[in-house]
Amino acid sequence: MRATDLITVERGFWLQGGAYFLANAMPQSYFLLPEPVGLTGLDGALRRVASGSRWARVDILDARVEALTEDSVVLVYRARAYREDERPYHALVSSSYVRFKRRWRLVHHQQTPTQEG
């Protein structure tokens, strides 16, 4: 998979809704998000997506994709995300994907908030 293809999949997790998560994440995936969400599985992530406002835009910066095996990759990057009428959110992000039924599916996503810049 090309890095640009994986970044497109990743961007969808920031901008799309629950149907996107169900189609592109493994049922046993985990999300490590800033409090108050914290550590949650796919069900918790779906509840969060359904209850809150989504990001209007995300910039994925300095992205790197590393193949761990033929069927697993890790994506790391800096994110700058925007919601209407809010200051940008900045984070260091890592996501892990596995190839399942010939498609890349998310199994792990972690955000570490950073100071602006």
Outline the structure in words.
This protein starts with a helix and ends with a strand. The chain has a six-stranded mixed β-sheet with strand order 2-1-6-5-4-3. It has a single domain, classed as Nuclear Transport Factor 2, Chain: A (Roll). The protein contains three helices and six strands; from the N terminus they run ααββαββββ. The mean pLDDT is 94. The radius of gyration is 14 Å and the shape is globular. The protein has helices at 3-15, 18-24, 42-51; strands spanning 25-33, 38-41, 57-69, 72-82, 89-100, 103-113. The chain is α+β, with helices and mostly antiparallel strands and 117 residues long. A hairpin with a 2-residue loop joins strand 3 (57-69) and strand 4.
SSE blueprint and pairings:
Elements: H1 3-15, H2 18-24, E1 25-33, E2 38-41, H3 42-51, E3 57-69, E4 72-82, E5 89-100, E6 103-113
Parallel strand pairs: 1-6
Antiparallel strand pairs: 1-2, 3-4, 4-5, 5-6
Features:
117 residues, Nuclear Transport Factor 2, Chain: A, 6 strands, 26% helix, globular
Number of helices: 3
Could you give the order of the helices and strands? HHEEHEEEE
- Gyration radius from CA atoms, angstroms: 14 Å
Range of helix content: 25-40%
Strand line-up in the sheet with most strands: 2-1-6-5-4-3
Strand content: over 45%
Give the overall shape, derived from the CA principal axes: globular
From the 3D coordinates, which CATH architecture would you assign?
Answer: Roll
CATH class: Alpha Beta
**Helix/sheet category:** alpha+beta
Biggest beta sheet attributes: 6 strands, mixed
Count the domains: 1
The termini sit apart by 30 Å
Average pLDDT value?
94
Number of DSSP-assigned strands: 6
CATH topology: Nuclear Transport Factor 2, Chain: A
Low-confidence stretches: none
